[in-house]
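Moderator note: this is an archived Q&A kept for reference. The question asked for a predicted structure of one protein chain; the sequence and the answer are reproduced below.
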Amino acid sequence: MSESGKEPRASLLQVARAVMWSFIGIRRSDGYERDVARITPVQAIIAGLVGAALFVASLVVLVRYLTA
């Protein structure tokens, strides 16, 4: 913990990993609590939108490949 009593902000990789676990729906409670303390709402929203866009794009590519 930093001197101000707050956890430092999460890195891009930590936010991406937390969003991935959220998509899957598997998360330990201590990891969840750590993420809540470090990830800002703006980080979570942006990472969620990017993750959803990548998921949809990968599904589109997969379906086009399978139907070609």
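Archived answer notes: The chain has a mean pLDDT of 88.
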